[in-house]
Amino acid sequence: MLKNKPILLVEDDMIDAMTVKRALRELNVINPVLSVENGEEALEYLRDEKNEFPGIILLDLNMPRMNGIEFLKIAKNDDNLKHIPVIVLTTSLEEMDRVDTFNLGVAGYMVKPVDYKQFVEVIKAIKLYWSLSELP
Amino acid sequence: MKTQNKLLIILVISAMIMFAGFLIILDIQKRQTSILLSSGEAQQQKILETAIEARSEVIGRTVYDYTYWDDLVNYLQAPDPLFADDNLKTLFSSFGANVVWMFNLRQESIFASAFIKDTIPPFAEIPKGMFDEVMKKKIALFYLKTVYGILEVHAATMHGSNDEAREKEAYGYFFVGKLLDSAWIESVNQLTEGKINIIEKITPDDSPQGDEIVVEYPLNDWQGNTVSWVRLSRNYEFIKVFKKLSRFSTYFLAGMVIVILAIFFMSFNFLVKKPLSTISSALASRSSTDRLKLGMLRSEFHKIGQMIEEYFEQQESLEMEIEVRKKTEAQKEKLINELDIANKELKDFAYIVSHDLKAPLRAIGSITQWIHTDYHDKLDDDGRMQLDLLLSRVHRMQNLIEGVLAYSRVSRVKEEKETIDLNKLVKEAIEMVSPPEKFTVIADENLPVVKYGPTRLLQIFQNLISNAVKYNNKDTGIIEIRCAENQHDWAISITDNGPGIEEKYFEKIFQIFQTLKARDEFESTGIGLTIVKKIIESNGGKISVSSIPGEQTTFTFTILK
Fold first, then answer.
1. Which of B129, B248, B365, B536 has the maximum number of C-beta atoms within 10 A of its C-beta?
2. Residue B347 CB: number of other CB atoms within 10 A?
3. List of chain B residues whose C-beta atoms are within 8 Å of the C-beta of residue A112
4. Does domain B50-235 have CATH number 3.30.450.20?
């Protein structure tokens, strides 16, 4: 993907994280994937100046300690972080969640399908979106 | 208290009326007595007058007769002492006279004599005025007061012995006096059967005493002045009896009044007040002893007592019922509360469980596919088939979870009602289902405009139409959407020419996860109709199904107006 910026994956489920990484690999995305397990860890990573800023954040909603919504509320109020595009990757089909996250300024909302092949399709769409949109 | 005051007033008024009646009766009695007395007085007056006049008439007539007597006239002209003494004395004393005078026209005394022992003749003077009066009247009767008592004086002018001579001039005056002495009184007493008194004046103190009737007769002089009165007092037994009788009747009446009032009061007390106070105290206290007294009341009050008792029983049973109802109500409320909590928990539970179930399921699905891909070479056909089966079950599981989520969403997420044109919505639903070419979908024109949650309503039509499409087994599919108007709602029916449903399954098809075909044969979660039913019922409608097996099925549901 563009500029070889790392992808920050905020996901507590190890297999889901594996799925994302596998799909990215299958789609020949060579950007490094940084995996953290919850919102707190994500903020920690982002606020550590030694770490490289990610080009995109793939965010799960349902996580321990700090969930995706809570993370978004903080990140989108942080002048340093609010420009990073966030794509929500979630199990939830709930309208409410979708509305809430879009109100918090997410770039996309993807529902994780059970079928891996469909999952790959979703990641393909993200790649396509990322490739086309100009990132700051 | 107020009622008692009123009753007291009634009692006092009736007592006053009775008392007034009593006074009226008393007055009538008094009047009767006075009438009786006055009639008695009149009678007695008559008797007295008659008696006095009868006594005096004897002398009066004699005087009148003798004034015709020529001898007397002659004597007047030539007085003869012998003649006078012998004849006049004998003559007049024989009928009771006490004194005789004779005067000539010059009013000179010719003869004067008294016939009472030890009296000075004539013991009374004839007053001058009397002569003129006698001359005028020719005959008169006067009374004179003398030292011996009241003197009855008969006077007449003297004339010759024929009627012609009487009409002509008189020769002199002739007076005969009679003392109203004890003998006179005695004789009048005999005539009147009473007691005679001669009194000078009538004073108020002389009012009749006891049972006697008293009348007076005036004794007048020549000038018309009353010199004295003759009083007649007489006892009447009937007055005594009458007075006794009236007194008795008065007392009797008064007694009657008191007795009647007492009886009235007592009977009122006994017949009305007591039962009333029993009733009121029973009503107020409701104690069992007071209520026992209700049963002992008599006559109409007995009925009232029974009615009150019945009322009490009814009330008691009502109170008990209310108590029971309150308890049940409280229990119900508690149950509802618990149910509400349970329901909410269940909703959340269904959501959370389903939601959290999806993550591991997804992991299983992914890894199954990775094994399938990564280890393709190392697996034989059997192994690959098993992995395929595993994957298909993962899909089914996911469908089931999505179904539960969708079902719980119906009650979990409220949707605002909007005004919806059914014509447009049905069209949209048909487009979303996009039935294959073999289907003809016929919808009524002029479908109504309704108020509903748009997503929900779309869900209903989508589900029912897609069912009709999914299960159709005919070469050409026909789906009809009709609408009928009822009083309170619209009845929408969706009919297909599919395989139909046997009646015994009518209930089952609406239950969650119930399908009529094996899942391996026909992939279905069995959640669609359950959701449809839930949406319709939570919007106050009803859904029913009718079918001719092998030919058609009709789902009919209602939308409130």
1. B365
2. 16
3. 362
4. yes
Which overall architecture, per CATH, does domain B298-413 show? Orthogonal Bundle (1.10)
The residue ranges of every structural domain in chain B are: 50-235, 298-413, 415-560
Q: B343: Cβ–Cβ under 8 A, 6 or more apart, which residues? A: none
Nearest chain B Cα distance for residue A49, angstroms:
33
Kindly report the backbone phi and psi dihedral angles of residue B413, in degrees, each rounded to the nearest multiple of 5, phi listed first: -110, 120
**Does residue A99 belong to the interface with chain B, where contact is any CB pair within 8 Å?**
no
Residues B84-109 as b/e (b if ≥16 CB within 10 A, e otherwise) read beeebeeebeeebbbbbbbbbeeeee
* Chain B residue at shortest CA distance from A120: B366
Which residue in A114, A118, A123 has the most chain B C-beta atoms within 10 A of its own C-beta, making it the best mutation to test that interface?
A114
Q: How many CA atoms lie within 13 A of A129 on its CB side?
A: 16
| φ, ψ (nearest 5 deg) of residue B414 | -90, 140
Contact A117 B363 (CB under 8 A): no
pLDDT average per 10 residues of sequence, chain B (561 residues): 70 83 83 82 87 84 75 75 70 79 85 74 81 86 88 86 69 87 86 84 67 85 88 80 79 83 82 81 81 76 84 90 92 90 78 77 87 88 89 85 80 82 90 88 89 89 90 89 90 91 85 69 73 89 91 92 84
Q: Cβ separation of A116 and B370 shorter than 8 Å?
A: yes
Q: Contact B149/B174 with Cβ under 8 angstroms?
A: no
Q: Does A67 touch chain B (CB under 8 A)?
A: no
Sign of the four-CA dihedral B92, B95, B99, B103:
negative
Taking CA atoms, what residue in A is nearest to B398? A114
Quick check: A91 and B358 CB within 8 A?
A: yes
| A93 contacts B366? CB cut-off 8 A | no
Q: Does B363 contact A112 at a Cβ distance shorter than 8 Å?
A: no
CA distance B339 to B327: 18
- Ordered structural domains, chain A, with CATH: 2-130 (3.40.50.2300)
What residues are paired with B172 via a beta bridge?
A: B104, B158
Q: What distance in Å separates the CA atoms of residue A53 and residue A134, rounded to the nearest whole number?
A: 16
Domain B415-560 CATH class label: alpha beta
CB B429 within 8 A of CB B475: no
Q: How far is B369 from chain A (nearest CA, A)?
A: 7
Cβ contacts from A onto B, under 8 A: 46
**Cβ <8 Å between B413 and A96:** yes
Going by DSSP bridges, is the β-strand pair A86-90/A56-59 parallel, antiparallel, or unpaired?
A: parallel
The answer to whether B369 contacts A117, with C-beta atoms less than 8 Å apart, is yes
Structure tokens at A108: 């996309």
A100 touches chain B (CB under 8 A): no
